Amino acid sequence: xxxxxxxxxxxxxxxxxxxxxIPMKKYMKDHxxxxxxxxxxxIDLTKQFFKEYGIPEGKDLHxxxxxxxxxxxxxxxxxxxxxxxxxxxxxxxxxIPFLEDLITNKSxxxxxDAIAPNYLGLIxxxxxxxxETYVNKWLSSDNIWLNRTAxxxxxxxxxDTNKELLFNIISKLAHSNEFFIRKAIGWALREYxxxxxxxxxxxxxxxxxxxxPLSKREGMKVINKKKKEAxx
Length: 232
Known about the structure:
Layout: H1 3-13, H2 18-27, H3 39-53, H4 59-70, H5 74-87, H6 96-104, H7 109-126, H8 131-140, H9 144-152, H10 163-173, H11 179-193, H12 197-206, H13 213-219, H14 221-229
Helix pairs in contact: 1-3, 4-5, 5-7, 6-7, 7-9, 8-9, 9-11, 10-11, 11-12, 11-13
């Protein structure tokens, strides 16, 4: 076993709580096993481990993250994301296939919703000339998590959001019956409504028949809340 992984596993196995693992597994629809370590404790343990053993560099970065991704307990994938978070400013276009592999393996909303806006979004923002290539690839994929990635990669762009691109992506996926696509559409619209509520309102009104009730409800949540607060 890789020494770094060996030390890490011992560090976290010593804090395993099988009773707490049961509801955690249930919450994630029984898709993954859990060590049963609550998030605040896991975060503290991760900080302690990084302080003692450091963070993988260079070629070791992909190796360690892939090894963590292979472990059955979900906490190890969260630790992998913590490592990525420490190194996100160093990520480049060459890391995109690696990140796509993480998205399409052990896929669920918890990891995709970190990878799409925090890492792929960051890379594409720095490399605008490749955005169209990857967006088209993700949109044409049969993998719903890559579809969701196309919707969410601009989630943190705020005023830098390419709204025409966002609305085009949503229009192309609005027909989907997948809950996680409909939810992502609503989330992306809701987030962008904090920057441009008029554009989001107009888009939803003009695409009322195409968007699902869930997407519309989520997309208008912030706008409707502000209207209510203003007595409108």
